[in-house]
Amino acid sequence: MLRNFVLPVVFLAVLSASLANTSTGSVELDEISFNKVINKFEASLVKFDVAFPYGDKHDAFVALAKDSKDVDELLIAEVGVKDYGEKDNEVLAKKYGATKDNFPVVRLFLKGKNDPIPFDDSQGFTTDELRRFVRENTGLYLSLPGCVRNLDKLAIKFMKAKGENRKKVLKETEELQKEFSEKEAKSAKIYKTIMEKIIEKGDQFINTEHERVKKILSGKVSDEKKKEIGIRINILQTFHLYDKQPNIPTKEDL
Questions:
Q1: What are the structural domains of the chain?
Q2: Does the pTM exceed 0.70?
Q3: Considering Cα of 225, then 230, then 235, then 239, what sign does the dihedral take?
Q4: How many whole angstroms separate alpha carbon 79 and alpha carbon 31?
Q5: Sorted alphabetically, which PANTHER family does this protein's record hold (predicted)?
Q6: How far is CA 102 from CA 17, 51, 93, 118, 148, in A?
Q7: Tens digit of pLDDT for each residue in 126-153?
């Protein structure tokens, strides 16, 4: 009787220790569980890193895992690689171009696609950049700085509409704007302006405007201006999510 009782207790203790090493909201994968788990999700964002990661980049990844806890279609996971002993997960990491010389490496796996999409951290390895990367390549909703959920819904509704129906959505946006706080009202003004320009110039405005503001951002601008432009890019991306027909269809209700 005692033996039967001890074994489950020992098992639970080991399990608890394993979970303690896993970031909140993130799942720890290995060479055995990797394919079994990621194949169950529409999208899986995986970080290949040292077995016991730390630092700003790891913190940024952890923050995204916490922020996306309610997005059921998205898995946030980590593969810890050991460079000692039996070198756990080293072969799996190398398969996706990750070694101790370039850790951490992030890959986005999409259901039904053979090759993952690499995360380019040249613009920074931050929570916002990771969030933007996931949104751009999946169409899944992850809030970005400056974006407002209700306005994001209207932006996608606007892109799906045609002709006079777009003017109706613009009117909805103007009405909703009256209910916002001062901070949200600033963002609402950007949504409204983009809608007006699309009605005037066509859907191509999204790409041309995106390139224009990116060019400004690459020059010498103040930190405050960078923040303003970053918000504009984030809002433009919401319109772009539907326009580019992402790999995972954007839900009717974000």
A1: 10-138 (3.40.30.10), 149-243 (1.20.1150.12)
A2: no
A3: positive
A4: 9
A5: ENDOPLASMIC RETICULUM PROTEIN ERP29 (PTHR12211), ENDOPLASMIC RETICULUM RESIDENT PROTEIN 29 (PTHR12211:SF0)
A6: 28, 14, 11, 13, 35
A7: 998 999 899 889 878 787 888 888 999 8
